[in-house]
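re: the backbone from monday

yeah here it is again, tokenized this time
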């Protein structure tokens, strides 16, 4: 039998991805207790480079937030974001008029399409204890035919997302069927909306001192990467792999993973490649540089509909629960 591990690589910020994915980041911040205004009850004056605050040696980072952690309003075009918040909360606001607070396992799927602005802020709602944030954001490309679709905002609540409990493992099925379990439908214009593209996003947790078999894909044409982001060493075949490594897998084989002395935490990203040219400039992803220039000019002229919120780092009321306000005015509260 051929080696199921095709390649390994150390995880950096952002994680290296393969077509149809463009980008993936993992944030784990042990924010301090809040200051009553959803910011940290600690000084930002000591050693923080706001705007470039990605130092992995820090216990927590403000990223681009000046008073509340997070990413104030910024544009996206030509791809999709899948945001998984396992711990803590994210406050979303966008140029469509959509908004929400989600966390505790919720997932937001946003198709940027022809262009949207949004902000992603991380309010520190607890003033008497630490505010931990664990978040993944995955950028999934759109094919040329989908680059100019209307933006779309979708919430996937934790209570509705399939979570498979096997003997030694728990698998959260964000996208792509796992064995016979189907996920919630993705955004309608997504590359993941066609099951033949076999897009999968699975967050997998495997018990310490056990074994887990990752089922093979249905197609040999998919790219398949397993991100080992937390735990102790594991073994796949005769290969020992340390945490904080990505593992490119042979999609035609079941993968037997032996877990050592700590729980193994993994993110699987899989999908059939789109196979088209990719032109990127920051948050704009098209097929050619000429298209990038056109989109940038449109953003300068229209701001993708403008910003309807009072602040670029807009957050919701401190006592607000989980909710989603959709562009058509529909309000869902959890």
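seq for it, each position gets an aa:
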């Amino acid at each position: 039998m051929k080696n199921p591990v095709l390649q390994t690589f150390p995880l950096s910020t952002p994680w290296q991805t393969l077509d149809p994915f463009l980008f993936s980041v993992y944030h784990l911040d042990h924010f301090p207790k809040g200051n009553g205004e959803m910011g940290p009850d600690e000084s930002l004056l000591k050693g923080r480079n706001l705007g470039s605050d990605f130092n992995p040696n820090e216990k927590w980072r403000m990223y681009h937030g000046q008073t509340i952690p997070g990413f104030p309003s910024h544009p996206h075009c030509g791809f999709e974001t899948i945001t998984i918040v396992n711990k803590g909360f994210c406050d979303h606001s966008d140029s469509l008029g959509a908004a929400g607070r989600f966390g505790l396992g919720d997932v937001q799927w946003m198709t940027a399409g022809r262009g949207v602005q949004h902000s992603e802020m991380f309010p520190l709602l607890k003033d008497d204890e630490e505010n931990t944030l664990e978040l993944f954001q995955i950028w999934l490309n759109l094919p040329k035919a989908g680059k100019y679709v209307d933006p779309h905002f979708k919430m996937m609540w934790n209570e509705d997302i399939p979570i498979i409990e096997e003997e030694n493992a728990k698998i959260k099925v964000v996208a792509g069927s796992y064995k016979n379990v189907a996920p919630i439908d993705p955004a309608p214009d997504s590359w993941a909306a066609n099951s033949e593209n076999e897009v999968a996003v699975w967050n997998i947790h495997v018990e310490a001192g056990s074994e887990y078999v990752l089922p093979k894909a249905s197609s040999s044409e998919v790219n398949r990467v397993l991100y080992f982001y937390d735990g102790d060493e594991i073994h796949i075949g005769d290969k020992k792999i340390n945490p904080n490594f990505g593992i490119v897998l042979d999609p035609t084989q079941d993968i037997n993973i032996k877990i050592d002395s700590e729980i193994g935490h993994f993110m699987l990203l899989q999908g059939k490649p789109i196979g088209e040219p990719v032109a990127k400039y920051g948050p704009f992803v098209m097929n050619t540089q000429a298209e990038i220039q056109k989109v940038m000019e449109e953003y300068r002229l229209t701001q993708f509909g403008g910003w309807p919120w009072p602040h670029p780092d807009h957050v919701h009321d401190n006592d607000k629960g989980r909710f989603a306000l959709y562009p058509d005015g529909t309000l869902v509260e959890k």
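The chain has two domains: 1-13+162-276, 21-160. The chain has one helix and 24 strands.
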